[in-house]
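Predict the 3D structure for this chain.
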Amino acid sequence: MERKKNLAIIGGGITGASIAYHLAKSDRFEITIFDDPAGKRATTVAAGMLAPVTEVNFGEENLSTFMIQAAEYFASIARTFEEQYKFDIGYRNTGTITVSLTEKDRKDLERYVNLYRRLGLSVTEHDGSEAQRIEPLLSPQVNYGITTEIDQQVDNRALFDSLRRINSRLGVSTIDRRVVKVERDRDGDFRVFDDGGENGLYHVVIVANGTSATTIEGELKEISSFIRPVKGQIIRTRHGSDHLAPGKVVRYNVDSRPGYIVTRSNGEVVIGATSEEVGFDERVKARGTFDLLHDAIRVVPMVGEYAIEEINVGFRPASDDNLPILGEIRENLWVALGSYRHGILLSMFIGKKVAEAIASEQTLVEGFEIFAPSRFVGEIQSPVTIK
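Done. Predicted structure below.
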C-alpha cells in the first residue's frame, strides 16, 4: 500500500475545511489544518447567500460560470451531508427579490438587469405592486423589483460546524496555531512554522487562510501581497413567533447603498452588509450600524420589530482584480485565496476542484485557468531549496 503523503492546509475557515473534506475522501493524504484561533475569519460572519445571479458585478463577468456551477454543486452537498452524515446545513431554495425605492436606484437596478441577461442569467421584472404581492412585507415605497429563482441560501455557521465534524470523522487533524512562515527544505518538502516554532514537514501545502495570508513569510510572501481585506459589518436579528419575516432573500439599493435581508428557518434574520477598504479595523461603527438598520427598515418596515442579537465585523479576502487565486505558485505549494464577496458560495466547489487538481497532479483548476496565480506572480517556478 502506498504511504500517505503529509499535506498541510493553512486556514481553518470554510475554504480550507472544504478542501480538507474533499481530499480526505480520497484517503491519499495525512491532512493537517492549521487554524489560527485569532484569525480574521469571514466564514462565520457571512450571511450564507448562494447568489450566482444577484452577486454578479460589473468587471467580474468571468466569474459567472464558476458561480453558477458552485451553486448547483451545493444541492448535492446538502443531500450528502443530510443523508450520509445526518447534518442539516440550512440549504433552502428561497429565490431572491431585488427592489428599489427611488427612480435613481431603479435605473441602477435596470443596469444590472441588462448585465444579468447579457450573461444568460434568468430574471423577471416587476412593478412595485407586483413586487409587494410576491413579498407582502415590502414597503409601499418599493417602485420596482426583479426576481430570480436561481439564487439559494445556506446557514453558513451550520455548514461550517458540519464540515469540521465530518473532517474529524475522516481523520483530518487540526492544530490551533497561527502559521508565520513556510520554507522548502533541500529535499523539496515544506517546513511549516507556527507562532510556537517549526511544526512539521509536509509534501504538499495549501494556503487558504484568506486575509491572514498577508502575514505569512517565506514562500508565500509574493502572492500574499495581492490580497487585501475588505471590511464588512453585518447584523443578526431574530423575528420571533409574533412577527413575520420575508420568505425570499430581499436585496435592495437605498440611496445607492446595497443591502440584503436573509431569513433563516430557525427565526434568525441577517441584515447586511457594509463594504469598506479600511484595513483591519475591527471596530463596529455607529454609522454602518445605522445605515444597515435604516435601509432595511425602509424596505421591510417589520424589521424594526426584530430583536438584535449580534453585530459582527469580518474581512473579505479580495485580490487585486477581485477574482479568486487558485493554483500552484511553486511545485506542491497551492493557494486558494481571494473569494471576496463569494466565499460561502464558492467554498465547496473550490474544495472539489482543488482536490481533483491535486489528485490528478495538475497545476491549475481545469476549466478555470483564468484564476491562475500566474496573472500576479508569473509561471510556476522550480522548487527553491533552503540550504
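The CA atoms of residues 263 and 269 lie 4 Å apart.
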